[in-house]
TrEMBL record:
Residues 35-54 bind DNA. Pfam families: TetR_C_41, TetR_N. Residues 12-72 form the HTH tetR-type domain. Keywords: DNA-binding, Transcription, Transcription regulation. It comes from Streptomyces violascens. InterPro entries: DNA-bd_HTH_TetR-type_CS, Homeodomain-like_sf, HTH-type_TetR-like_transc_reg, HTH_TetR, Rv0078-like_C. This is HTH tetR-type domain-containing protein.
Amino acid sequence: MSPRRTNAERTETTRSQLTRAARELFSERGYASTTIAEIAERAGLTTGALYHHWAGKEALLADVVHDLHRQLAVRIRSLGRVGDEPVAQLLCSGREFLAFCADPAVARLLLLEAPAVLGYERWRQIDEQWWLSTTIRLVERARATTAGTGLGVECTGAGAESSRRLALALLGALTYLGHEVAMKGRPTVAGAGRTYEVLLNSLFP
């Protein structure tokens, strides 16, 4: 006989079912055209089960966005290490994000629905929660290896705050390139990746 599931395991299963159903429906119909009842029905659960875990549809969308970032993080980790060179790691993860944005369902949820529904500030906070600290660490390492060579340090100033601003600039550039990919489709992924590579190489020669 298989062991009985714990309450935590049952809770996680329920949340996963509802999050997956919400993601599917938000992608297919859009956030505004999807109801709580439809999400519960798609998951094979009750609306009461959904409201037990989330205050409403907006809170559920926030968790869907977290799941998208989690999926991207898993994809990046699955690529393996790109040596210890920080610029190569920044480039590899950036290219993977751009490829991620070529999926119409991902682009709709992550770049269109989420900022419109959650508001720019909350959407940005989720993005930074997942990627800012890692990007700052890679920027600091990249700047250390190019110290004294020019643009990477001298044009942005020194110190932790300037590394943070530079990391934000890189994330912002990727977001706009991701929008370009989302609007024009998969054929633009390679070109957007080359643009990001030019940016990195200009900052860290």
